[in-house]
Write a structure and sequence with these properties.
The structure is a single chain. This protein is mainly α and 118 residues long. The chain has a domain of 29 residues. Helices cover 72% and strands 0% of the residues. It is built from five helices and no strands. The longest helix is centred in the middle third of the chain and has 24 residues. 0% of the residues are buried.
């Protein structure tokens, strides 16, 4: 058990708290036996149903031109981003504000790094 002065993070506190209440329940191979006794037919039906659903999904994707829709969505997204960037009025910003913003972001980043390394 560690001394309380050595604990530094929340994860370590949680680990210490839950370790005192941890109980091991003996399984004696029960889970393995249950999984072995599941009917083979149920496993086959499950696999067949999964493959059927996958095939239906792929067929519907092809029939309803899913690839074309994905291309259209990507194209619209790129167009929206380009339109947004083009609508920014750079005359409202000055180089001083840009440098001040970058300096502030750098300071916040350095502060966050220094706090996490303590």
């Amino acid at each position: 058990m560690r001394n309380d002065n050595e604990i530094k993070t929340d994860d370590q506190l949680l680990e210490q708290f839950f370790s005192s209440f941890k109980r091991d329940i003996p399984d004696d191979g029960f889970s393995h036996k249950v999984m072995r006794r599941l009917p083979l037919r149920a496993k086959r039906v499950n696999a067949a149903w999964s493959i059927f659903c996958l095939m239906v999904g792929v067929a519907l994707f092809i029939v309803f031109n899913g690839l074309g829709d994905l291309r259209a969505i990507a194209s619209n997204f790129v167009g929206d981003v380009i339109g947004y960037v083009a609508s920014i009025h750079l005359s409202l910003f000055s180089l001083v504000w840009l440098w001040a913003t970058m300096a502030l972001l750098a300071l916040v980043g350095f502060y966050n790094v220094s706090v996490t390394q303590r």
